[in-house]
Amino acid sequence: MTSFHAIILGVVEGITEFLPISSTGHMILVGTLLNIPQTEFAKTFEIVIQLGAIMAVVFLYVKTLLTKRVVWRSLIAAFIPTSIIGFIAYKAVKQFLLGNPMVTVIALGFGGVAFYLIEYFLKEHTPKTTTLEEISIPQAILIGVGQSISIIPGVSRAAASIFTAMLTGLSRQTAVEFSFLLAIPTMVAASALDIIKSKPFIDGTLFLPVIIGTVVAFMTAVITVKLFLKYVQNHTFLPFAIYRILLALVFWYFLLR
User: Fold this and answer.
1) What phi and psi, each to the nearest 5 degrees, are found at residue 165?
2) Collapsing DSSP states into helix, strand and coil, what is residue 170?
3) Are 27 and 9 in contact (CB under 8 A)?
4) Stretch 32-38: mean pLDDT
5) Which of 179, 185, 183 is nearest to 237 (CA)?
6) Among 51, 61, 66, which Cα is nearest to 13's?
7) Which of 43, 44, 142, 189 is 20 to 30 Å from 208 at the Cα level?
8) DSSP secondary structure string, 153-166?
9) DSSP string covering 50-70
């Protein structure tokens, strides 16, 4: 993997990690287009640079994290089911699903259809929870269970958590913000688990791409989070659902050629 590859993947990670379009899916598909071999290092690289995007959320929400303990209570409640399911399914997912473009394409397409239907269903419902402090423990647990579906590449952690949150009664903006914050324990744990279990050998030529990818992901994610929050104030997620479906069709054609 070259530094150029690391920059491209860092940008892709920073843009897609918090949008409901699957960062892992885009990383796999872009990696395929760039002819990057799906080695153990490549798989680990894609997970580790997510820390750059996560640090962007910490940077932007540091005041909330330090002053609102009730938010941490909800985050812990949501993280527990995600961590249990993720730990159990980790080996199977990395061995059979991660790095498989066809699985990613199918998940992108079906996910887009599902999100379109959910958005249509929710348009007539008034959210009951409009702030992070109002999120209940049962709501948080359900969001954590919903987020765990994203272990399948192409589903999107952000999409799974956001739409589950909205189905449990959270407003659009509150669901997005909770998804941002829930990414912190979720992705830190995922990265740590991957590093411990795979123990990749990163020599002098491979260490630099990891650093570059992580820094680029951080800078790109800061911009993306700010713009996404402005977007959800007055727009629905229907464009993202359509985008997922179209992207799946394009890459389905690409993979079958």
Assistant:
1) -60, -45
2) strand
3) yes
4) 77
5) 179
6) 51
7) 189
8) TTS-HHHHHHHHHH
9) HHHHHHHHHHHSHHHHHH-HH
Closest to 57 in 3D by CA, of 178, 189, 230: 178
Q: Which one-letter amino acid corresponds to residue 34? A: L
* Non-local CB neighbours of 223 within 8 Å, separated by 6+ positions: 14
pLDDT of 197 reads: 64
**C-alpha distances in Å from residue 90, one per residue of 28, 98, 161:** 17, 10, 19
Closest C-alpha among 19, 29, 3 to residue 53:
19
Q: Among 34-43, 80-89, 114-123, 125-134, name the one with the lowest average pLDDT.
A: 34-43
DSSP state of 37: -
Share of residues in the chain with pLDDT > 90 (%): 37
Mean pLDDT for the chain?
85
Provide the 10 A C-beta neighbour count for residue 234: 7
Identify the DSSP state of 151.
Answer: G
Burial of 243 (0-12, 13-18, 19+ CB in 10 A): middle
Alpha helices in the chain (DSSP H): 3-16, 23-33, 40-48, 50-60, 62-67, 69-92, 101-122, 137-147, 157-167, 172-198, 204-232, 238-256
| Class of residue 161 by CB neighbours under 10 A (exposed 0-12, middle 13-18, buried 19+) | buried
Q: How far are the Cα atoms of 61, 62, 182 from residue 66, in angstroms, in the given order?
A: 9, 6, 15
Interatomic CA distance for residues 71 and 164, integer angstroms: 17
